[in-house]
Amino acid sequence: xxxxxxxxxxxxxxxxxxxxxxxxxxxxxxxxxxxxxxxxxxxxxxxxxxxxxxxxxxxxxxxxxxxxxxxxxxxxxxxxxxxxxxxxxxxxxxxxxxxxxxxxxxxxxxxxxxxxxxxxxxxxxxxxxxxxxxxxxxxxxxxxxxxxxxxxxxxxxxxxxxxxxxxxxxxxxxxxxxxxxxxxxxxxxxxxxxxxxxxxxxxxxxxxxxxxxxxxxxxxxxxxxxxxxxxxxxxxxxxxxxxxxxxxxxxxxxxxxxxxxxxxxxxxxxxxxxxxxxxxxxxxxxxxxxxxxxxxxxxxxxxxxxxxxxxxxxxxxxxxxxx
Length: 323
Description:
Number of strands: 12
Low-confidence stretches: 42-50
Strand order of the largest sheet: 2-1-3-4-5-11
Shape: elongated
Largest sheet: 6 strands, parallel
């Protein structure tokens, strides 16, 4: 191509990469010539030369929820927003759903995939792995609960405040026998539970039920059935996610409990289908679109060698018919 176009190989490479360093007229001439003779750039060769892959790894670690699928409404929403934000910057996305069985799984992905940066959705039970990698690997941003002294940057909602909002709503509805459904081994859910419990008066706090539950609809439904069998006097439920909350509503109907007449249910996330549940779900909204944009902004800052700071978004109580 350099001989055909009468310029250096470096100029050809920059022109085909659409570099602004090459004059528009020269750039177009080289690109037109490349199209005419059927010349294309070898991506692997370019990556070796530039040490860039133009690829971002998007990782979903499921150490605590091996049964959870990418079809989960929360994941679907995050994937859509992040894919748009990454592609708008001219990068490709490498999606990895991981069920960790070693402590070096994240380091292996970074070393073997030759990606330029890493986005992680959720900390799961892998905080120690993220902490270790974050000490030496700059271009990584995690969606999840912020904690002091973490080595990596994160974007996420203030889950403690979200738990407080849920508790206050149930108390305002006059509910006195309350339950939290969620796995507090997960940092985000632990923070939601902390905010929820800390807001309750002493009597409700001492009587509140912590009911561990997996996040799949089937498992959540079975757990809610068990909850109503074991604790028929429950009149208010705060669920760790909208999927769990909607399963609670279905189980309540089967048990002859009426929502919201004698049972109030609040979820977390405000995924699109929350408004279509029966009855429509009251929930704590976290702005996933804004969060996805902030994750990408932070990641590309760190890919340029800039530090950036973790971000906590404010949650919002979205009142519908379930509470």
